[in-house]
Amino acid sequence: MEEEQREASAAAAEQAANEAETANAAAEELAQEEQAPGTDPRIAELEKQLEEANNRYLRAQADFDNFRRRTLKEKEELAQYASLKLIGQLLPVVDNFGRALQTGGEQGDLQSYSKGIEMIHRQLWQVLEAEGLKQMEPVGQPFDPEVHQAIMQVESDEHEEGVVVEVVQPGYWLKEKVIRPAMVKVSG
Hints:
It is built from 4 helices and 6 strands; from the N terminus they run ααααββββββ. The mean pLDDT is 84. The chain is an alpha+beta fold. It has a 3-stranded antiparallel beta sheet. It has a 3-stranded mixed beta sheet with strand order 2-6-3, with no helix packed on it. The two termini are 55 Å apart. A hairpin with a 2-residue loop joins β4 and β5. It has 3 domains: 2-80; 84-130; 133-187, Head domain of nucleotide exchange factor GrpE (Nucleotide Exchange Factor Grpe, Chain A, domain 2, Roll), CATH 2.30.22.10.
């Protein structure tokens, strides 16, 4: 929609400039034909049209400049606050970690504390998955240098050569983009 507005503003400015040029050329032509400029009503009419066309051109140019400034400001605000939604979704997870840390020292029940931390971890993953984060599962897959980073080559009877046998550090996708390749051991 912004692109359509920009094109419409640019087209209006161009049309106004063309009208101004046409009116100016016609006024000059008539002025050359007449020996006493300013006495012919046609010249006065053409000068009036020229002034109106110039005014329309200047207004269209100003509208276009305002539109450009407004869209630039909107883009800057969007970039500045792009993570606002994600941060809002992560705040309850941070709150839960804070509560877990407060109660961890008070209670002697390590099992319930561990279960609480697992629940918070699961809550964090739900938020991240809702935003499009996905953990890679490369074990058993052929090695792909676009998504895997080989740190070691190992002998394996279970897997054929060039297959990922172990993950040292998980890799992640954000929607369709690799944001961190998986560090893996590859069968040799």
